[in-house]
Design a protein that fits this description.
This protein is an alpha/beta fold. It folds into three domains: 82 residues, Winged helix-like DNA-binding domain superfamily/Winged helix DNA-binding domain (Arc Repressor Mutant, subunit A); 80 residues, Periplasmic binding protein-like II (D-Maltodextrin-Binding Protein, domain 2); 99 residues, Periplasmic binding protein-like II (D-Maltodextrin-Binding Protein, domain 2, 3-Layer(aba) Sandwich). The protein has eleven helices and twelve strands. Strands 4-3-5-12-6 form a five-stranded mixed sheet. A hairpin with a 2-residue loop joins strand 1 and strand 2. The longest helix has 26 residues. InterPro entries: LysR-type_TF, LysR_HTH_N, LysR_subst-bd, WH-like_DNA-bd_sf, WH_DNA-bd_sf, YidZ_PBP2. GO terms for molecular function: DNA binding; DNA-binding transcription factor activity. This is LysR family transcriptional regulator. Belongs to the LysR transcriptional regulatory family.
Length: 299
C-alpha cells in the first residue's frame, strides 16, 4: 500500500491546530485541499481520525496512538533533508561507493582512504569494480558515487576531471642484464614479457598501442593482477610494462627495477567521474574534492 507522505504533514497540522481552517492556513493550503487529504487519510486508516466538536477537530483514539510515530517520522525526514543539504562529514552515517578499476585500486585507494575515514568516522566506504560498459548507468542510479578510471568515452550526463597523468615503464628483477646500459626497442622486443590485465582476452593496453605502430612482442604469461605479475618477474628474466605510479609502489615491496619504455606511447590519463545529477550535492562534492586533493603533491 502506497502512502503519500504529504498526507502525514496534513495529519500532524490538524492534530496540532485542532481545526481544518487553521491547519490549512499553517500549511498555506486551501481548506478544501486539507479536507480532501483528511478524507484520504480516513480511507487509508479506516478511521475518522478527527471528530468535529463545535469548532474543534478532536483526535480519535487511533489518531492519538499514531501521532507520536508520525511526528518522529516527519522529524527524521526533515533531519535527513537538512543533513543532505548541509552535510557534516564528522557526523554523517552515509554509505559511499567508489568504483576503482582493479589495476588502479592499490595505487589510488590508500591515498585518500585514511583521510576519509579520519574525517568521517561514522561513514562507510566501499571500493568495487564496475564494468566500464555499465559505468554510466551505475553512476546515474546512485549505485556508485564516483569512479576512478582511465579516460573513457562517456555522455554529457557524466562529468569528469583528470586526476593524474601517468606513463608506462618497464619493470624487471633487480640486476637484470637488460638494464645494463640503455634499454632500446630492439633489446626490449628480444625479451619475453608478462601482461597483467583484468580482461580475459584481447590485447593489453600497451600491446594495443604497440600494434598500432606495427610492433609485436612475445607474451609468455598473462595474469590478472599487477602484484602477481611483479612477483613473477622478480624471480626470472621476463619483463613487465605497467604504469609508473604502480611500478614505484611495488618497487618498495619487491626486488624490482624500473626503466623508461623505449618507445613513446600515449600517456595514461586517469580521471574521476561523477553523474551530473549529483554535481551540486554536498556529500558528493566533499567526497570527490577529498579524492582530488589526495592526488596533489604534499597533500
Amino acid at each position: 500500500m502506497k502512502m503519500d507522505l504529504n498526507l502525514f504533514v496534513v495529519f500532524e497540522a490538524i492534530y496540532c491546530e485542532g481545526n481544518i481552517s487553521k491547519a490549512a492556513s499553517a500549511l498555506n493550503l486551501s481548506q478544501p485541499a486539507v479536507s480532501h487529504s483528511l478524507a484520504k487519510l480516513r480511507a487509508q486508516f479506516d478511521d475518522k481520525l478527527f471528530i468535529r466538536q463545535g469548532n474543534q477537530m478532536k483526535p480519535t483514539a487511533l489518531a492519538k496512538n499514531v501521532i507520536g510515530d508520525v511526528r518522529e517520522a516527519l522529524h527524521q525526514l526533515q533531519s535527513s533533508v537538512y543533513q543532505a543539504q548541509k552535510f557534516e562529514p564528522s557526523t554523517s552515517r552515509k554509505y559511499c561507493t567508489v568504483s576503482l578499476h582493479g589495476s588502479l585500486e592499490a595505487s589510488y585507494l590508500p591515498l585518500f582512504a585514511e583521510q576519509l575515514l579520519t574525517e568521517s568516522p561514522n561513514m562507510n566506504f566501499t571500493s568495487k569494480r564496475v564494468r566500464r560498459s555499465e559505468l554510466e548507468n551505475k553512476l546515474a542510479s546512485g549505485d556508485i558515487d564516483i569512479a576512478i578510471d582511465i579516460l573513457l568515452p562517456v555522455s554529457s550526463n557524466v562529468v569528469h576531471q583528470q586526476l593524474t597523468k601517468d606513463k608506462l615503464v618497464v619493470v624487471a628483477r633487480q640486476n637484470h642484464p637488460i638494464f645494463t646500459g640503455k634499454l632500446d626497442l630492439q633489446r626490449y622486443l628480444s625479451q619475453t614479457h608478462v601482461v597483467a590485465s583484468t580482461r580475459t582476452s584481447g590485447p593489453s593496453l600497451e600491446d594495443y598501442e604497440l600494434g598500432r605502430l606495427g610492433i609485436q612482442r612475445k607474451v609468455a604469461l598473462r595474469c590478472q593482477h599487477l602484484l602477481s605479475a611483479c612477483r613473477v618477474i622478480a624471480n626470472n628474466d621476463m619483463l613487465l610494462t605497467i604504469p609508473e605510479k604502480s611500478a614505484k609502489m611495488y618497487r618498495e615491496l619487491l626486488p624490482i627495477s624500473i626503466a623508461p619504455l623505449p618507445i613513446e606511447l600515449p600517456p595514461l590519463d586517469v580521471h574521476i567521474y561523477w553523474h551530473s545529477n549529483v554535481d551540486q550535492d554536498p556529500a558528493n562534492t566533499w567526497l570527490r574534492n577529498k579524492v582530488i586533493a589526495a592526488q596533489q603533491p604534499n597533500s
